[in-house]
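Margin note: ligand = FE2/S2 (inorganic) cluster.
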Amino acid sequence: MTEATAVTEATVVTEDVTDGYVRVCSVEDLPTVGAVKVDVEGKAVAVVRDSAGDIHAIDDTCSHANVSLSEGDVEDSAIECWLHGSRFDLRTGEPTSMPAITPIAVYPVKINGGDVFVSVTKEN
Ligand code: FES
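Resulting structure:
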């Protein structure tokens, strides 16, 4: 196994990515700062590049109501729900402002060969 080198919050791997990880998009598909919505094994996931260039994967649905977080604004390491303005920490899923009080799931991300892989079956 080749030693991984971390260049972002996501883990960069040089071997084949398997073991529960699913390719969701290319790094190039992501906005410079922002999110895209993807489907991972039937689950709506927001893949987000933050202001530092780190890539995260979170539940796409706000914990306050059934709203797509990938349509919200990204600033620093947080995403803001467009409906009522709750912000969620992309690293922990914790809401940092009201009205949401319940965390959202954060999924592990790996980058390989310019592709983004996410696992919705592993704990981050
Ligand atoms: S629906 Fe997201 S904060 Fe209300």
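The pocket of FE2/S2 (inorganic) cluster is lined by residues 62, 64-65, 67, 81, 83-84, 86, 99-100 (CB under 6 Å).
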